[in-house]
Design a protein that fits this description.
The protein has 367 residues and is an alpha/beta fold. The chain contains 11 helices and 14 strands. Strand 4, helix 4 and strand 5 form a beta-alpha-beta unit. The model has no long low-confidence stretch (mean pLDDT 94). GO terms for molecular function: 8-amino-7-oxononanoate synthase activity; transaminase activity.
Amino acid sequence: MKIYPTSHLPGRKVLLNNGKEYLYFSGTDYLGMGHHYEFLTYLKEGISIYGTHFGSSRNNSLRLEVYEEAETALANFSGAPAALTTSSGMWAGQLLMKVLPKIITTDLQDKNFHTSNIHYHYAPRVHPALWGVEYISASSGWEDWAKDTILTIQESNVDCGHIICSDSVGSPFVESFDFSIFKTLPFYREIYLIVDDSHGLGVLGKNGGGIFRELSSIQQVKLIVSSSLNKALGIPSGVIFGNHDIIDTIRKSPFFAGASPAPPAYIYALNKLLESNTYPVAHQQLLDNINYIAGKLTETNLFVSTPDYPVFCSSNNKLFDFLEENGIMASCFSYPQPTDPPVTRIVISAIHQKEDLGQLAEVCMKF
């Protein structure tokens, strides 16, 4: 894999250290927050108030209210009852996986239940943030895995607990998942649906609020969603969404108490961006760009994509080199394992202009 060093944060374009400039169609800054004027303004305000970081546990006796304020705003944005921020999306997922047995046993404190009765069901290619000690990689397609999982749960003993783990959308090779299949799960069982929405929050759902609202209609499960905030929303932090009891249990965990929080200046900026409805505006700009380019890229028969989603994937590695030769920087690398086959990904951002999208389509049609 060739490396392209740069000393500049990419936006619509990226300038490499060798002096070459490219149109940039890569990364995960779906809403273009990296150079967003209002974001920068709010961040500067936050630094002037809170400094550069908060060297303390969130469970200390002195507490910065900005965290709870932003978490309330995030919960409203996503449609979740409650939210809890962490230092990263990876830690949000790993923290959740560490505390899940405690969440289940706390929920079942009046029942004769042991953690050995907890069974994990991992979707194919689920993000490493949700990998736990019971992780086993599924080799089937997502729908077949979901059907097998439902059958396994239906045939299991009623005293078993089940944890279903999946991404909200496939990555790096984009794929949409129909979670409504889980509405065929049995009622009155201990079933937790754990979803990593890192590539969905800010992109999927109403105003980019993510997948929580959609999944909350699955009444057979207790829903918990974790996510990075450092993709579409642009905040170096992570978040966990769930009901108040679940979030309270995580908040009391030593794994949360012993971890440093995200910088409060960024959390301040997040709260301001949510208050000002900045994200829904950028989300609409992203949808407009997707609708503008999707048909043109589909005509090339080069890409796999999903409706209203800003990622277009190809297994043809020669496409990446062709794009690079024609002034377009996409991405092509093995993920998450170094042995995984590389995927060429084109990512549309809210800040791309029509001329950028037109040039991208023109180059792809020449391939």
